[in-house]
Amino acid sequence: MKRKDFLKIGGMLVASSFLADCRQTVRKESVAKRGSLRVTTTIYELKLRQAWTLSRGTWTTRRNVLVRLEKDGITGYGEAAPIPRYSESAESNEEFIRQALPVLEKDLWEYQDRWQELEALSPGQNAAKAALDMAILDWIGKNLGIPLYQFFGLNPEKTLPTTYSIGIDEAEVMQKTALAAPAFRRLKIKVGVPDDRKHIEAIRAVTDRPLIVDANEGWKDRQQALEMINWLAERGVEFVEQPMPADNLEDHRWLKERVPVPIFADESVHKVKNIPALASAFHGINIKLMKCGGLQEALRMVSVARALGLKLMIGCMIESSLAISAAATLTPLFDYADLDGNILVTNDPFRGLTLDGDLWKLSEKPGLGVEPVIPEW
Length: 377
Ligand code: MG
Prior knowledge:
Low-confidence stretches: none
Largest sheet: 8 strands, parallel
Strand content: 15-25%
Shape: globular
Strand order of the largest sheet: 5-6-7-8-9-10-11-12
Bound molecules: magnesium ion
Helix content: 25-40%
Distance between the termini: 36 Å
Number of strands: 16
């Protein structure tokens, strides 16, 4: 056998085992039909390349909900990455989507009204709202035959590079992960455990790239947070995300007046209504579609945060290329992007978004511009 043929067959085998793996990871599929509307939800288990540890837990898989919304012969896709911290699961997100069917039956072109109706259904389940908002806007983009960045009036040449996240692990493992991601000009390091300094020193020993540090509320008092941030600033850390518990705005205000580098809110910020109270406690905010309930709310948050002089980062959960495409579409409006959820998994069920070094390149296809790897999804 010639080498070329050997490589071709090898490539086909890898591709078929990848597709078989994608098919196997579907845990449940449910379909609801009303008139010309058909909504299919699939609970899909994303497999992480390596165990993912934050200050509050460790995961090797994440169960997301993929939504297929079909109406008038057009299909829109959406994805929910449920956040357990806010009492969400794949099942509770799916239940919300089932309850939302009467809203989805109405005119989807009036998408702003539909979002308000979804918001009125329940105060939580924001990942499910994000999935439906995404699916409706994908549907609208496909109806118009234009990509969503064009619908929003955004320049696709101005997408941002993404950071590459390194979860908490043994110092040597974190060091190896940093070395294995040379294309990423900025790394985001998870901290909030007793070995934080050892971890940062290990990474600094192998790279001088700018670092962002995310404490995920891991430092319990303001003195500890200030000491750590002073120490991190001396080691080239650009800014620090969510130093202390989300509700503790008073100590974050104290901290903001003393730190040598900016502090960003993540767990402290959810929706546009939260932002005014945060402006005195943080220099910037991290907006995530799954936390806020979708693209429409994220756009409102951008306007208010800018008016208050806040810096902006767009972040993600562990998500496939579907939800990452939605977030990447908005990056021209942000200062920083932390959109690497799809890079951290081995069985991404969508394709269409591509990485050029560390820069997301959006598809020119209509809507979100991505398609499922298994055609019938
Ligand atoms: Mg964070």
